[in-house]
Amino acid sequence: MSLRRVSVVTTVCVSLLGAGCASTANMPFNKPLTEQTEPQSSRSATAVRDGMILGLAFSGGGTRAAAFGYGVLKEVDATTLHLPGRPPSSLYNHISFVSGVSGGSVLAAYVGLRNREALTDFREKFLLRNAEESLATRASLINVGRALGGGVNESSHLTGWLDDNLYNGATLGDLERRDHPRVYIYASDIFNSEPFVFSRSTFEALCSDYASYPVSQAVAASAAVPFVFSPIVVESYPDRCRGPLPAWVGRAAKREDSATLKAVAQALQRYRDPSIIRYVKLVDGGVTDNFGVSGFIVDHEQEETPYAPLTEQQAVNLQRALILVVNAGQEPAGNWGKTLEGPGGAELVRAVTDTMIKSSSRASFDAFRQTFKLWREELVRWRCKLSLAQIQRLRGSLKGWNCRDVNFYVGEVAFDQLGPVRGKELSAIPSRFKLEPEQVDSLIAAGQDALRANGQFQAFLRGVPRSQQPVREQTAVAQ
Fold it and tell me: What CA–CA distance (Å, rounded) separates 82 from 74?
């Protein structure tokens, strides 16, 4: 969705707050737990293949973000590994998890549902389509009134389009296929001022059925730009709970060493208290976490083991982890920095919004990078304390064992890695759900080129044991 349009609508709304308008609201789609509901057990640990983890976090930014992320995925798929004793394989097969916010969530969810097959048709089924065709996007008095009432568009407009063209009625339970990457989709809980992760632990706190919730609703919540969309609503059902919250929630709510985990735990506690909150209102995930990285932080910190969210066996066999944030964010824009006057009106709203999101994103990324640094240190300490008998049991062999042989590569793939001229051109592409074909293909190519130029990506490849140098191979995906 165009940030310029959002800013214009927001500015008009602020100036007309006293006018009064009918409120609009989306009905909750989540179901309460029942006796027939499948147990809300956690999914298996993050996949580790050939001692490697590859994780990709796709930022917000409409189709611009989805196309740039798609290009990164194509380059991952085109990178062939020649591991000792193994047939050549695409690096794509080693993706352990993907996360997405706003436009990035559209891609992350599709990858979670179709895995590598997503590369064959995502360009045609989404990137070249007009996902705004069912939405009200014109600046008019009627739409201003709707914005004042909660949002111009109800969720049904976008969710219907997503189901008809991409997800075919898939649910969050369909994202849990064991041979597919793990998926994190983010929205923003505007009551608790926290990221809302569509996960089993979140739905457990809501006493709601996770597996039946529509993927299209989760993605629509992640992309629900304030004023343009009415907040997506999920309902808490405290009278349907089968037991207390997990013990980690109570411990985390009192922690002073992790503000992220403490805030998440406190939000989960509020979901169980109907005197505080019954209806959780969700808007664009970029408001609280535009890089979509807090879910992994919580997954790691909520456990008491130094290797979570891995199993013991995975932690012993892990050697390399590459975690990349794919950032399709825009560079600063506007001419008011050159003049004494301004910004004013819509430019001021846009500037303030950009400042809040970018500042929050930088802080989230710093915390994310620090989490992996500390996790690596914890893993090494734990591995080096294992007995030879434990290593033999978990690894199957002592040959080549080195408890310190664990390396994490955490980086950002962004427009500015392609030079100032190209970066400025890409940044000028609007963050909406309708782009021209040449813009889409320019972004796809940029994603491929930016990943190849990324220092952390190249360092990761150099550290992978191989029988020969990894090579790029062109895939059959149409452009």
Answer: 18
